[in-house]
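#structure-requests
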Amino acid sequence: MSEVDDDVKTVRELTPDYFRNPKDYFWRWVEKGRFVEWRDGDTVCYREELARVLRGLAEQGLPPLASVLLLLAACADTWPEPAGAAVEFKQLWQQMPAGPDAPSNAELERQMRHVLMFLDVVRALPTNLRTGQPKLHLFREVFNAQAPQIGAELASALLDEWESGRSDVALHFSRGQITRREHLNEMAALAQVLNRFPTTESLALHLRTGLDQLPAPLPLPEPAPPASASPTQPLDLLEQLAQDPRTAGLARLAQHLGAALRIPMHAQGASDRPLGGVSDVTNRGNFDRLLLSELAHDDLSLMARLVNNEALYLRREEPPRQDARPRFILLDTTLRMWGVPRVFALAAALAWARHSGQARPPVPVAAVALGGQAFSTLDLESFEGVVAALELLDVGPHGGVALQAFARVAQTQAAADNLLITHAQLLHQPEFAQALAEAKSSLHFLLTVDRSGEWQLYEYQNGHRVPLSAARHDLEELLFKANRMRQPLPLQAPLAGPAFLQQVPVPLYLPVTALRASIKNTFYAKAIGVLSVVDRQRVLFWPSKDTGARELLPVIESGIYYFGSNDVDTVYVLVSGRRLLRIYAFVTVAAEAEMIDLAAEVGQPSEALPTVFKDGCFYVKWAEGTLVFNCRSWEIQSRRNSIFPAHAATTFRPDFGHIKRHINNGYNVLRRVTQLGFVANGQALVIEGHLLVLASNPNKLSHELTLLSRNVSSNREDDIRGLVSVDPKGFPLTANEELLFRRFTWHEGSEAILDPRGLLHLRSADASVPEITLVLVLGQPTAAWASDGTVCGSAYFTGPHPARQLSVLEFNQNYLQRFIAQLG
């Protein structure tokens, strides 16, 4: 027989032994193994619940089944009173057969007392820690420190065998009577865990945080010194320049140049020069400084000493470190540098100065302006000095004479690293080239700029000019284009109102109300989805036919709408009307919107203007010509000189039947609600005569949250309790003041708010009950959301993968039933 057959046989033998109830024990299977009950006939748990718990424990192995059943009973409040349980268990073990190693009565009694004390600890836990998904966490924490009865390697196979039903026949018959020793072993897991969690508070803390005790609080920080003692840090020079529109382009260009320019690093240290004598012996150095005695080793030994840093080297004396050499920036201001090259050169000077100031140690930097005949000092350390430098212009053809004058002065001063910044074409001008050759001994670096955005950096080495680096920048983009970082329109949540409205974006997909899709209000692109301006000028977006809508904008201006897109992720909407011309960009993947107002550009129009979207641009025909707005670059491309594309075909001719199926999966919205209540048995809400029920779905073997229509419901009016009527006075809660919310109030303080977007918000008078939001749709399963972030119901409204989701059965028990109970 194969090893596989041996494993199968082992699992089939273990399954009845594990799941069969002992004869005359405190629990037994009934109804062909459908549920477990106490000896007195009360239910302990259903088979499905037991299977879910055991599956959660399979990864760490299965504990004794009796312990699992007792813990399930404590979680479900089906555990009898402690006094009665103690008497019953004492009678049990007194009837059990005693073996040679049977425990004493005192030992069994002490163990059972610990078991009952721990089960009382569990019973006192908050409901949200011993029901639903947290219950599995409780079971894992209780049994993870105990040796399992069934190891993890066999647990899953054993559960598969049990759930297959092949062992159900064996469950009809009890196994032999359990001994006292076996009973002691079965209860040991619950008795021992009392030492870890002696109180409900300690167990709850561990379940919530994973800690057995909270850490001690950190010491309070020292009080901040008075404001006068710590003056505000001044803004960096480039930050000051960036904040002024006149110099913002200069700052952007200087930042780009700062990232590209690299001043050569002189890595040679003072000890690397053949100066002075020997000061020490070290285990690191160059091979030419190895001690001669190291060469006496054989090749393998020498290699081993080198690899292990055991070889010895000579270390030379280091002369005193010299101070950092200052740097001078020579900025050409002559005729060829006027305009864009001048700004380019000044940005390079700022980048060079910033780089020098950030060196370690910082290098002092000074700047001079080279005119046609003389040079003058520049201030590149203040905002005012940079602005003044931009105003310096000299009519001289080149700065050769001023360069020679600076070179003569430099020869009488201490050595410095001088950088000349000039135009690239001047290197080929004979007079300037001759002056540069004569002054090169006083220069260390040369940086040339060009109107095209190209720069080149050279270093003078032994009288020769050596190229170091070069790059090209888009000067048009950096200097003259406004910062195009999209600033999304702020979607502010209301300060008051239901918790659902405080979430941005709202946590559920929305149903659609009052939309007649047409070319005037709806846009569809296969790669993007459907965007529409619906009732009361709300902008909704459906990414696919499998979900509801996202509200991209709560309110948009009323007018004539023109649509376009980038065919990837953004839809553009132009709104035109009287004194109105605005363009919106809706980035659908991020659910963000951006707007630009162009009414002033076309003279505050008195009516809607003809508009066409073509090649990523809106063409707007107005009195003085055609305004062209490029949506991709988000700027005006032309104000009046372009030709209006009179015969441009529209980009949107969809099948509106397909659009309707995309935005609605077959539901209707219950918009008119005047009365709310609940049925007499307190199990369901009644919303305008419709019953909110948990309907079974045989295809999915699950339940769905559904509003049962009036003609299907068998409830009579006299079966409805807590009936309240709507307050007819509406009030706005969102930025769209046309959306009027209405309130229902029960006498005990609970309230409901009807949301005209197809939602109902429930707030209980009991503060411990989270707020609930229901989607009011008929004809399809609906969904719900709780203010603790939990959702349930149709994925059409919750989304495919919500962060926290419960089954509708659990959501109904944990949220809806608690809300209804407060009403009763």
